[in-house]
Every structure is written in structure tokens, then in C-alpha cells.
Amino acid sequence: MFNQLGGVSANPNKDLEVTSPPEDAVSSLEFSPPSVQQTFLIAGSWDCRVRCWEVEASGKTVPKAAQGMDGPILDVAWHDDGTKVFMASTDKSVKCWDLAANQTMQVAAHDAPVKACHWIKAPNYTCLMTASWDKTLKFWDTRSAVPSMTMNLSERCYCADVDYPLAAVGTADRAICLYTLEGKPAEFKRVESPLKHQHRCIAIFRDKKSKQPTGFALGSVEGRVAIQYVSPANPKDNFTFKCHRPPAAAGGYQDIYAVNDIAFHPAHGTLATVGSDGSFSFWDKDARTKLKSPEPLDQPLTKCAFNHTGQIFAYAVGYDWSKGYEHYNPAKKTYIYLRACYEDLKPRPS
User: Fold this and answer.
1) What pLDDT, on the 0 to 100 scale, is given for residue 322?
2) What are phi and psi of 6, to 5 degrees?
3) CA distance 116 to 219
4) CA distance linking residue 112 with residue 95, whole number of Å
5) Distance CA 49, CA 143 (A)
6) CA-closest candidate to residue 311, choices 262, 273, 346, 284
7) How far, in Å, CA of 220 to CA of 159, rounded?
8) For residue 83, which of 55, 42, 131, 111 has the smallest C-alpha distance?
9) d(Cα 133, Cα 33) in Å, to the nearest integer?
10) Cis peptide leading into residue 165 (ω within 30°)
11) What CA–CA distance (Å, rounded) separates 77 from 265?
12) What is the rounded distance in angstroms from the CA atom of residue 242 to the CA atom of residue 227?
């Protein structure tokens, strides 16, 4: 569906460059849901804007529209019908962007920056879930100015994911809160992270046979990912692996980089990680093997996403401040790249 053509870029892997990228690092990246015939990509950025592109079959990207908020964007989410996008910001609010009208309206508020937003489509209700640095998780009927439900978190939300009927929220005290969304949202389990350092990202995975959400992958700032089952059949099913740690230097020191994002392939169930070392890797968690790790780039990778058919892998390149302000180079631009990925993520025959 997708040819490796397109503009010349500084990308060693010859991936396609998205035109008119954000002016600052990308904080969130999401492809349109299956309900939409065309493929659209949205990206939220620290430049306080959310942009939308159409991705044509050739891989060419056409900028469609953009909307701004009063603070950097920390998360974006699609409505299941593909007509609207939710945008969460450090300005403590979430807005709903109606793409056809190109209008926005505030639909949620917190007492501190909103770190995550997810649209939930259940058989008997729909709602917007928001999680904030104010240590609360809120559920909104977007027609109402007050939340339909508020739950306290033990600490600030650092990462969250939703795959109905499961929601997972990682907090600043290294706890993971798990929620069932059936009937109405309810917390059912709280676990301590198997990782010793700060969480950076979380992604829910599904069981290969039942196709039901069954666990999550958690990434931390110390180049490690934990694979955790909600109810492991065997405690050994839970494990951690190292990644985004380039080979040791001559003196024997090894640099360790943050895992900035994790995404599961919608068809194969394999996963991608992106890190501060400027690389992405594809993994098979069931075989516990690395499938592919292309050439690293000269800047951190901040976010990644698969489109709903699993044909396209998108990843964002830009400074993530992991080395402090003295390493910030304003001459280096932000990029988003697209890669045909379906074959690369197939599990190897066992």
C-alpha cells in the first residue's frame, strides 16, 4: 500500500518524511480509527499545537489543519467515529476538535496539567477519560461541564493507556492502577512497578487467542521494558528486558537511555519501542526476541504509532531534554517519519 518514496531526508533508514512537521518535540502521535476510510495522522507538540495530515497510499502526507491551545500539548486521542480529536494540555484543560468544522470546545478540566486523554467506547456508554498531575482520573460525558466520575490516584499520572475493557495508569510513585471499564469504570488492581526507575510509557497488549486485553508493557527512563500480565498463568510470564542501551564504549561504560514510547502492532501483537538514543526496535514478546533494530538517528525519538491495519509505523524525532538544556540545539528540527512495517513485525516461526 505504501512505497518507500518521497523527499530526501537526514534519515539513515530512508523512511518517508511527513511534510510541515511541528516546530517543537512531538508529545503524542495517533492514527485515525478504522471507522475512517482514509488514513489520517495527528500529532500534538510542545509548540502548543495539534496538527492533522492525510496519509495517501503512496506515503505522501498532506497537511489538513491545525489547532492550538494555551499550553504545550501532552496527549491526543481520536473519537471512535473519526470526526473529532481530543487534545490534553498543560493549560489544565482538554478540548474537543471537530475536524469538519475546524472548531474546538473545552470538554474537561483539572487543577494541574492533563497528562493523558483516551476516548472510551463501551457497549452501554461512551466517555472521555482524562488523567492529570493533580493526582486524579476523571471520566466525562462530553456534553456536561462536570465529570461523571472522579477517582483519586496515589500520585501524578505519568502514562496511561486504554483498550476496552481495560485501562492502565502509571503514576509518579511507580504504581500501576488497573481499571475495568465494563458497566462503569472501577479500579480492580494496583501493582507496584517491577522497574526501579521512573515510568515513561505504558501500552496494553491483547491475548493472541482470545484477542482480549490481557496485560501491559511498561517503559522506564533506564532503558528497560517490563511485560506484565494482569493475571499471569505462571509468574514467569512476567519479565523485563533491556533496550535503548547502545554497545559499551571503550572504557566499559554503557550509556542508558529512556524508553519514550511503546506501541503494539494491531495484527501481529509484536511491539515497537522508541528511545532517547535515537533508535526504534521491533520485538516479539512471546519469543522474547528482537525482530529488527534499524540505524539510529542523531536525535531522540519521542513517540510512535501504528495505523489500524498495521501497515505503517510512524515515529517522531526531536529533542526530549533527557540531557538537559546544554544539549539543546535549536538548529536541529523536529521530524515525523513513516515506514512500511508489516513484514518487519511478523513473529518469526518458532
Assistant:
1) 65
2) 105, -175
3) 16
4) 15
5) 24
6) 346
7) 11
8) 42
9) 28
10) yes
11) 18
12) 11
Strand order in the sheet with 166-171: 157-163, 166-171, 175-180, 186-192
Spatial contact of 305 and 30, defined as CB atoms under 8 Å apart: yes
Structure-derived torsion over alpha carbons of residues 67, 71, 75, 81, reported in degrees to the nearest 10: -30
Those residues whose C-beta lies under 8 Å from the C-beta of residue 267, and which sit 6 or more positions away, are 309, 310, 342
Do residues 258 and 275 lie in contact, with contact meaning Cβ atoms separated by under 8 Å? yes
Assign 29 to helix, strand or coil: strand
Q: Distance between CA 166 and CA 215 in Å, rounded?
A: 9
Q: Contact, 160 vs 169, CB < 8 A?
A: yes
- The per-residue pLDDT for 4 is 44
pLDDT at 12: 86
Please say whether the beta carbons of 235 and 227 come within 8 A: no
Residue 73, all three cell numbers: 500539548
The whole-angstrom separation of Cα 34 and Cα 308 is 6
Return the DSSP state at 279. -
Question: Mapping DSSP to helix (H, G, I), strand (E, B) and coil, where does residue 325 land?
Answer: helix
pLDDT at 323: 62
Provide the CB-side half-sphere exposure for 228 (13 A, CA): 24
Among 161, 238, 248, 154, smallest CA distance to 195 is for: 238
Beta bridge partners of 54: 40, 62
Write down the pTM of the prediction: 0.94
The bridge status of strand 239-242 relative to strand 259-264 is: unpaired
Distances (CA, A) of 119 to 116, 122, 265: 10, 10, 20
Give the chain's residues under pLDDT 70.
Answer: 1-10, 320-325, 327-328
- For residue 157, the number of C-alpha atoms closer than 13 Å in the C-beta half-sphere is 34
pLDDT at residue 203, as a whole number? 98
Short-list 175, 181, 184, 180, CA closest to 202: 175
Amino acid in position 57: A
Q: Is 95 left (phi over 0), alpha (psi -120 to 50) or beta?
A: beta
- Counting every residue, how long is the chain? 350
Cell representation of residue 97: 476538535
Residue 193 is placed in which grid cell?
512497578
CA distance 253 to 54: 44
